[in-house]
Amino acid sequence: MSEFWLYFKLGLEHVLDWNAYDHVLFLVALSAPYQVAQWKRLLLLVTLFTLGHSLSLLITNYGWLSVSSSWIEFLIPVSILIAALFPLIQLDKQESDQRVIYGVTLFFGLIHGFGFGRYFVQINDEQAFMPLLEFALGIETAQVIIVLVVLIVAALFRTTLKLTQRDWIIFISGAVTALCLPMLVENWIF
C-alpha cells in the first residue's frame, strides 16, 4: 500500500508543483468557459488529459517511442496558448465545437506525458504497469482539485465584481496568454 501512496503522491505533486505551473495554466484556461453547473463536461476534459498523459507515459515506459525533449518543451506552451485562445474564438458563437478542445486537451496530455516520461522511467525501473495507474490517479485528483478551485474563484469573481461570463473568459484567457508567451519564447525551436 505504501507504494501506491508513493506514486499517487507523485502524481499529485506533479500537477500541483508551482515551479512547473504549465499544468495549472492549462487547467485554468480549460476551465474559463465553464460554470459550476457544467462540471461534468469539464470533468470529461480533465479525464481526457489524464488519459493522454497516461498513454504517453505508457509508450515511454516501455520504450515504444521517444520524442525530442526540445519539441515537447515547445509544444507544451503551444497547447496552453491554444486552450487560452479557443474560448476567445468561440465567444460569439451560439454553440462551440467541443471536438477542438477535446482534441487539444488530449494532445496536451500526450505531450506533457512525453515530457515527464524520461523521469518516470527512471523511478519505475521495473517498468511495472501499476505505478502508471497510481500516478494517473494522483494526476486526476490534483486536476479535479484545481478545476474546483477555479470554478469557485470564477463564481466568486463573477458574483462580487458583477462580471459576465464573457468578461471572465476574456480576462482569464488574456492572463493565461500573457503568462504563457514567455514560456513559448523561451522554448522557441525555429
UniProtKB/TrEMBL annotation:
Pfam families: HupE_UreJ_2 (PF13795). The keyword Amino-acid biosynthesis does not apply. It comes from the Bacteria. InterPro entries: Put_HupE_UreJ. The chain crosses the membrane at residues 42-65, 71-89, 101-121, 141-161, 168-185. This is HupE / UreJ protein. Keywords: Membrane, Transmembrane, Transmembrane helix. It comes from Aureitalea marina.
